[in-house]
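User: Could you check the structure of this?
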Amino acid sequence: MKTTSYFSEGNKKLIHCGNTYRIRVASFDLLSGVTCPAASLCHSEIEIVDGKRKVVDYGQFRCYATSTEALYPAVYEMRKNNGLLAKSDNFINTIHSEIKRLGLTSVRIHSSGDMFSPEYMKKWIQIARMSPDVEFWGYTKMATYVKFLNAEPNMFFVYSVGGIFDNYATKYNLPSCYVITSYNQAVELGVDVACEAEYKSNDYEYILRGESFSLMIHGTQKAGSKKNLPVTF
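Assistant: Sure, the predicted structure tokens are below.
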């Protein structure tokens, strides 16, 4: 995975997204699990056991991002360091400057990690306001933050179903993404399946349009994950 000091640019899906939609895109990532206070079904974290990184699963299926952190030390360290930066007073100016330096036109906020606090969310809103010509997009399980993020003209977020705020997302009809294991589940939910075959990065389209959609479960999974995953949420 190709990285800059703060942004990941070499994720295959992001490369496909950039080439398909002709955007200069990169992602800002945090450690999975430990920065995801609303995670439930996909709650996984990296723990250090005897000096080695090990994936520990707390939910019904594994967050794909933890497997990457377990395999690649540089990825783990970058996400860990990004977390320290995110809590610092220098975060807004540092990230704003890096976006300009890289010439980004699109920022995926968190292919790993989440909006871990209101203060952190507000920092991203400020960065977006300082970069009106850049689009900021992604998923979050912090359902109560979605309306604040999407109130900004250049921010686009969907709720990631399978967290502790699922009922809130349903009540307020938030644009949502569902993890599924069969096409029949998508039919029952009444949503399209994104990121299939040559359209493997078209979740970008759904998110920018504010539409709900589904994704097939992906990444290395623990035994029984697909069997135990609910048909609907």
